[in-house]
Write a structure and sequence with these properties.
The complex is a heterodimer of chains A (about 375) and B (about 110). With about 375 residues, chain A is an all-alpha fold. Chain A is built from 19 helices and two strands. Among the domains of chain A are: about 90 residues; about 45 residues, no CATH class; about 50 residues. Chain A starts with a helix and ends with a helix. Chain B has one domain: Dimeric alpha+beta barrel (Alpha-Beta Plaits), CATH 3.30.70. The chains are: A mainly alpha (about 375), B alpha+beta (about 110).
Chain lengths: ~375, ~110
Amino acid sequence: MFREQWGRVLASLVGFLGDFELAEEAAQEAFAVAAERWPQQGTPANPAGWLVVTARNRAIDRIRRERTLAEKTRLLEPPEATVDEIDETVIEDERLELIFTCCHPALALEAQVALTLRALGGLSTEEIARAFLVSAETMKRRLSRAKEKIKATGIPFAVPAAHLLPDRLDAVLAVVYLIYNEGYSGRVDLAAEAIRLGRLLATLMPDEPEVHGLVALMLVHHARREARFAGDQLVLLSDQDRSLWDASEIAAGRATLERAIALRGRGPYVLQAAIASLQTDEQIDWGQVAALYGQLAAITRSPVVQLNRAVAIAQSGATEQALELVEHLELDDYQYLHSTRAELLRRLGRTEDARAAYRQALALASSERERRFLERRIAEL
Amino acid sequence: MKYALLIYAEPGSHEALPPDEYEQAFGEYMALTADPRCVASGQLQPVSTATTVRVQDGRTLTTDGPFADTKEVFGGYYVFEAGNLDEALELAARIPAARIGGSVEIRPLVER
């Protein structure tokens, strides 16, 4: 209940006070009062309104106590709001403005991530610190530095103008996807948090295909989380136990993807979601997957995408053609280039070359799990 | 809010432009100065004219050259009155140095 309301209440307060730190303190106070009163007196009819009005009043009191602060806020004549007017108070949803403030490119990426989780996700500083394996003290400093920069440099609390929107939206989506990928490596449930943020964004920007594309991509990946590992072993897509996949999440992902395609989305997230969706089919159309990777490579110019395209080409039966593509990629320091090359060489019966390539991959493997996987492949040659 | 836009460029980078592009860039610098939001601006003489002063134990140490020996050097500035950082960023992106290998640092001024 509280986490549901947090983002909306905070957004409204940042908009009203024009000061992130002050808004957060006031919101915290209001939530504390609610935690005390609601269980006894019952939840008000308009909880968000109650929280915003209570927090505003607290903030105004504070400003009056600390007069100098008033100069730093947008408040000249603080209007007096009473709890009586709560039912008539329509709390405008300003979460989109808040998201764009949190993901402003003038902030360091790690600060954008932390701030988004704190402000929109309602995670505590301690929870965010745990998720990113830093001390609570470090995370607290990171957050307050970011909030200070927002205030001192005048980072706007606004949805960017149309000509800035595509770039800024990319930055927001990158932050959400980064949070998702942190969750994928197995700590605190950041993946679920990222999906929540993505869905919120899709509600707030229903006409942006890439937003739906990202949500679809995350859902389809998330649906397979239980099947990705067997104990400590990484399980390849083709070997995954499909009964462990979350069918309803896959269906939700596909429905979201359809929405994105209906909006004529052909951006990187939509393409990745389409690929992920095809890969959940019983009979995977690898030719189609390869074609989509081709489109994705044309947009991103990423050799890693080309590598994935090569894998899809190989799966469609054209092993030689795939190897030819892999041999031309400049990705010498990339573990998966070598493991893919090894696999292709193995299929072509070039066992010794395959062994050498697996060893190159092994030398670059960063996790114990992956090392064990590669050692198993070498032993199986 | 007032923002200082600090311009860093490689010495000679502007002079190396073809004459028409140089003219164009010059015009753009002048247009920014003429913008009603521009509160102050200045172009520095080349870095070869720099002298650095330090005072240690009451003694003034004067040395030839800039404070820091870097590839990009501070060459000029604007001060703009802008509504928020996004507005300042847009102005900064219009400064020719930013597209000819240099960069523009944006710092809000302390309000007094």
